[in-house]
Fold:
Amino acid sequence: MYSEKVMDHFMNPRNVGEIPDAQGVGQVGNPKCGDIMKMYLKIENGVIVDAKFKTFGCGAAVATSSMATEMIKGKTVEEALKITNKAVAEALGGLPPIKMHCSNLAEEAIKAAISDYFRKQGIPTDHLEDLACGRRCDDIHKAREDD
Amino acid sequence: MRERFVYLDHASTTPVRPEVLEAMLPYFTQKYGNASSLYSIGRESKKAMEEARIKVAAALGAQPGEIYFTGSGTEADNWAIKGAAYANRKKGKHIITSAIEHHAVLHTCQYLEREGFEVTYLPVNEKGLVSPDDVRAAIRDDTVLISIMFANNEIGTIQPIAEIGKIAGEKGVYFHTDAVQAVGNVEINVSGMGIDLLSLSGHKFYGPKGVGALYVRKGVKITSFMHGGGQERGRRASTENIPAIVGLGKAIELATLDMEERNQKLIALRDRTINEVLKRIPHVRLNGDRQRRLPGNVNFSFEYIEGESLLLMLDMKGIAASSGSACTSGSLDPSHVLLAIGLPHEVAHGSLRLTFGEENTQEDVDYLLEVLPGIVERLRAMSPLYEEKEGSQCTVKK
Ligand SMILES: Cc1ncc(COP(=O)(O)O)c(C=O)c1O
Ligand SMILES: [Zn+2]
Structure:
């Protein structure tokens, strides 16, 4: 059900680990959903020079985490904020429809880590408020019950 | 190419035994007659079907006239529950079942709730056992059916069926059991156990897929399932699937013949797997009851990791297994069975079901034990929920 690229990023995930002196750390997802991702960013002069992750989750969650960290390395924080879960999924050669919700995690983790960075830098994060998601799971559960 | 393929998912389905396939083959191309036809190849089909019926009846301690062939285990469950509910509407609208039934039962009950029936979903204890006292206490004057599965497909727990059957008999309430996982694994006697309706499915005991049977005790009132021709005494119309029925008959005969011998072997594989995994891997729990479980069933939860990842990595090593994680179920919730025995969501997500079958060997267990610890360690090293501190001391991060 997974593309070769997804399987490659799942079996050989890039950038697994932690960055002890990270400028931004974000954790998203919750155990109820079954996917949790923690992202660590090393940021110098507004540029993401290193990214690492730890993920508790399915194949899609691990692969999107891996791909997302690859995509943001070398980008400015503003550029990184524009990366969507769809872009990550596309870079992986697509995900099965029922797995799209797992891929939200990567986009959210990037946003959560960057907003942590902004907070530590004293930069206002109001414009990010509705992006860092804690309600993701319940929203999806609700959407499902409705159909 | 894979070096090795080890199939550890027999609760999902089993291979067709060569003897079963051999018995089926003539009924596709040579003895293809319609069992309702009066000429020779029609009569031959009819005879083969009735022989299969006798075999199913013998395996259950029933009369052949009490066996109806169906298109699957799911169909048998649907028929038993809807059939008993609709046929006994005058008596009442209450059904008792458990929280850990297969979806073939649960979703049928939910459907009936929308049709105006009331359903009590009995809880189970932490091992997955239904309490007969709870069954007794739940019975009302308007209860028309009790449906409790014989053995659970995920955690393998075997229910106190005879006790529940006795209570149902005393109270004059019909008792249905989904025995799809039990047939060929557990001794079954419908009269001794007070069972009025019993579902089974061919592909769980080395028979073909897409064929099942429903036992209906003589005199039990249920509506017909399919309306059409007069097949299955008019209660389940449509031209009978003779090859599949012949295969089911042969498979149930073989499954019950060598049950004890096979079970001894399966229990040895099961228990060694349980003991060794619990010994070699930290932060693991066994789900289900240690003793009262199906001979081939093992179900673990590995803390801090997610089941689908585990399955993918096992698959890369050629091991086929299953999990109750949300990401494998196609829904967002982990298995209702694991939640019903009280597991927290994240622990339920990390479940692994291994179900042994007759072609498995101790070498398969050796291989599993060789690859599993490394896979678990690798996934844990990737998990934000897990942190290794100073050697083997592990803690959960907030
Ligand atoms: C307990 C139980 N009931 C019912 C079924 C459904 O059987 P079938 O696949 O024949 O429809 C299964 C198997 O998936 C099962 O394990
Ligand atoms: Zn997922």
Observations:
- Chain A has one domain: 4-146.
- The first helix of chain A runs from residue 4 to 11.
